Amino acid sequence: QLPKIVERHEQTAGAIHRCVEVSGVINKIVFHLQRVSKVVEVEKEEPVEEQPEPSKPIDPIEEKKKELLRELSTLGMGQVAKIKRLLKRIEELNEEYFRANLATPLARHELMTLLAEQALRLPLYVTPVGEFPPPRVGAITASDAYKLSVGDYCAAFCEDMWILGEVKSIADNGRYEIRDVDDSEKPLTILARRRVIPLPQYRADPVRDAHAIFPVNAWILALYPQTTVFYKGIVEEPPKSATDPYKVSFDDATYPSGFSPPLEVPQRYVLAFRETAYKPREKGGDKSEREAAVPEMSKEEMREQKAAEREKKRLEKAEETKQQKIMEKERKKAEKAEMKEQKREEKMREKERKKKEKAKEKKRLAKERRMLRKKEAAEKKEQKKTEEEEKEEGGSKDEAAEREVEEEPREEEEEDEDKEEEDEKEEDEEEEEEERDDGEEEEKDSTEDEM
């Protein structure tokens, strides 16, 4: 039922977050109202000296203003408390939604999308007037004595790298059992507090709490985009608003400057830099087995090992990028070929349709011509018959007239035959011309496909 609950509260969440964005003005009003309330309370608590008070006229308007200010202060504080309760509930729903999705089997790209969405849902901390933000707000780091809770997300130093992990349990000796977010089947890793950095619980507003934002050129640990590993980097540009990300240049020896181009990283995944050379211990086995499994290494060997691992990661990343480019190229090529095939099929269908329409039109015209010739022949025959009848009534005929009458039908028949032959020739020529046009178009399409 969790997605339904979240969906039902989306509009409320949007309205509340808009209220939070303008809560600075409300907080200022509340601050002034608190001052007025304190002044009123102090006046009430001060003992009244028994001295003759000078008779001053009481201004009813000023008294009315004070009363309205007290009512407004009470109303404003009640609204602030209500908004905070709603924001807390929305925060709990977002966390439940994130954990429910994280517990299901996810593909790599789905996990990256989920982590990016959770970073955007990180709540904004609205600092009360005159107060300082607590730890785990933006860049304000928790002290080493700070104790994490089960379910907290953190950066954990495991296998010579800082990974994104989740606290699964806490041992009696204060050590934490960490689960790798990117590999749920991997055994839990036991780590000391010094190798665990909790993630921020709230975003900081650069306008109100600029001291809770990492400055330019600050060394930090940031989650590299599309991975679950934190790398050393430097802040190129801090966020200018509560919703803006950091722009971080990561430490990378493959670039001439030693740093990668600036990449955007949300506030949730930007931590204070901490360097450690301790080895993690995996859960299980006694102390002697763990010491045998992790032999002591000199600083030079550790440095070489780190350099080799960095090079290996760089090569893997380059290979992955190369494969992605090849796959993208193949996909675009397949899409282009499919589009060409679709266009060719559409052209063929259009040609067939036009050809059928043309043939149909030819048949219709030929039929009309035949009907017209038949009609003309019938009219001539009728006319001839009428003339013969008139001549028979009028008397005898000349021999020349008889021959002329006998030759006229033969001439007309010959003319009709000549017309039919001409029509057939025209139709044959048109069909040959169409076949030539179709052949030329097919050759043109084939050359385009080859190109």
Automatic annotation (TrEMBL):
Keywords assigned: Nucleus, Transcription, Transcription regulation
GO-annotated cellular components: nucleus; SAGA complex
Listed Acidic residues bias regions: 43-52, 404-451
Gene source species: Pristionchus fissidentatus
Region (Disordered), start-end ranges: 42-62, 280-451
Bias (Basic and acidic residues) ranges: 280-351, 374-403
Domain SGF29 C-terminal positions: 144-279
CDD domains: Tudor_SGF29_rpt1 (cd20393), Tudor_SGF29_rpt2 (cd20394)
Record field: compositional bias (Basic residues): 352-373
PANTHER family noted in UniProt: SAGA-ASSOCIATED FACTOR 29
Cellular compartment(s): Nucleus
Record bears the keyword Nucleus: yes
Database matches in InterPro entries: SGF29, SGF29_tudor-like_dom, Tudor_SGF29_rpt1, Tudor_SGF29_rpt2
Protein name, as recorded: SGF29 C-terminal domain-containing protein
Record flagged with keyword Transcription: yes
Alphabetical list of Pfam families matching this protein: SGF29_Tudor
